[in-house]
Amino acid sequence: xxxxxxxxxxxxEGRTFERVPVSKTGEFIINPVxxxxxxxxxxxxxxxxxxxxxxxxxxxxxxxxxxxxxMGVFLESAKxxxxxxxxxxxxxxxxxYGSPTDGLIARWYKSEIYPEIPPVEPLREGVMELSxxxxxxxxxxxxxxxxxxxxxxxxxxxxxAISASMKIIARTLAETNFADKPLRPGMAKxxxxxxxxxxxxxxxxxxxxWGY
Length: 212
Fold this sequence. Notes:
- By secondary structure, the chain is mainly beta.
- Helices cover about 0% and strands about 50% of the residues.
- It contains one helix and 16 strands.
- The termini are far apart.
């Protein structure tokens, strides 16, 4: 309480955020959200770099990676839901994917490759199950994947998790997508930011045109 008013206050890594919600029936919901909001909304894209994987033509391989997470605070009532706050631990790094003239800025994250679900550091990272399929006629070496995070479908329990796929189409061309399914039974689905912000979305995946 602050001067008799219910106050939401968050202190994280030396920064303070405060709001005074006025509601009779609203409740707070905290869950992981798409990692494209900090330090501000610079880009919707996430590039995960990992040790090279060499995939033969026609083969499919499922691996586990780590990815950065952010936490969203929502204020929900019977009639509406609002994004109140978004925060995260650690610093954010960015990179250029593609050419200087036509490329795009992506949040950058480096991960090891894991054969099964790895332990993660809570509030900092989650687990991505990535299925890589080589539909090309030649061997393909993959060392990073780029995703449009507005399509991300996040589930959580003790860990935060997403399921994704990567289809290699040509020598420098691949398509990435997110699957709307939990990594394991019983996980809760996180509120998607575009739903809370009432932004119409079409799940479309992302076509990587500048290599993988």
